[in-house]
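Problem 3 from the worked examples.
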Amino acid sequence: MNEQSPEYDFVLLPHRSLGPRGFLIVMALIGGISFVTGLAFALNGAWPVIGFLGLDVLLVWAAFRVNYRTGRVRERVLIDGGDLTVMRRDTSGREQMWHFPSYWSRVDMETDARGVEKLYVGSHDRRIRIGAFMTPEDLVTLRRSLDDALQLSRAAAAPGRG
């Protein structure tokens, strides 16, 4: 990167409102309630209910684990020295990278038949979707920020500057 070209770095992460400590508290509450309820049923002769309540706790735990796994997705959009680079790490840790010339890159937002907004970056006939896990409001903000960053990058690369 030369000293006059701006650098823009956008890191996109899925939002998770419940942290590890909150997860432990929620699971302790669910487990405690299920245990007390199961004990009450067992004392009244309905001991098989304990197994079903334990299964419920296990299913809630599994659902949280799947949710946290999807939270490992990361996307990074970097505009630097004439290049727009998108790096993506999926839930299994596999990384992918795409490069576009920033001068010709554009940001497009589309709404599909179901009303889901999708954000794309690309150049010429190639483009990729970014921010699939983001809210529509965050996608609009990201689109504006990327458009601004691309304009500033183009202005820095314009002939006569230097």
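Problem 4, a separate protein:
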Amino acid sequence: MTSTDFRRNSDNFCYRHPDRQSFVLCQRCMRTICPECQTQGAVGVICPECMAEQQKSQTPSQKKAERRWARPVALAARDSRPLVTYGIIALAALVYVTQLIPGLPVQELLAFNSLFVMPSAGVAPFQPWRLLTVLFVHSGFFHIGLNMLAVWMIGRSLEPLLGHWRFLALYLLSGLGGSVGVALIAPNVWVVGASGAVFGLLGALLVIGRHIGANIRGILIILGINLVIGFVPGFQVAWQAHLGGLAIGALVGFIYARTRSARRRALQVALLIAVAVGLFALLLVPPLIYTY
């Protein structure tokens, strides 16, 4: 497209400020809006007209939730750049590149199998780091590509809302939940990938979006489709990790939603630690019910 054609195309400029170039669309009406006209939503941004329309159609409970969320909270991040999201993607990409080097047993060292976290089984060395390193090792290009695309799409909206450290805690706890889910439901099964953590991000986004009165229908549809795929014959998907990550992600999202104020920061940290301790405690269950 020539520069003249570009200038004549109104879709390349804010509809409220025709002299301002922008490529950001309102998530509801899909019109182009400049930074001044953007209001951050649960996912994406909303233009002033759509925001006003959304507020008019809100139920009393939604208005109450929005007022609670608008109070001074401890979730707001000073740096709105999704730095942790970029870091997760970069680390996963680096690990994948090392997997391509002949002779390096990267996947064998980082993949997860419940036998490595159950010393009482006595059939494998105790290697607890696999509970989290599994998040950064993948089985192929499309596997890592789809997972990191999901991390990027969710993280660029969720991380600025939560802050860097809360987002990182959510990601790691969700991944830990996915590994524990595999240990509980499918012991002695090898798994790789960040799917458990990705489902945890979706679960947290679902809970937080519901808490602030956002439209979560799209998130429910995406979540439902991905959960169903895990049970379709022929798809080699670790649905146990999906369920575990989803449950822990939703739980962490609920903790964040209910402990937003600065005065509850200590309670928030204590609850996150309790979630981690609870997950490690669940690893004591499989040796009691399975024979290795």
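Solution to problem 4. The longest helix spans residues 141-162. The chain has 13 helices and two strands.
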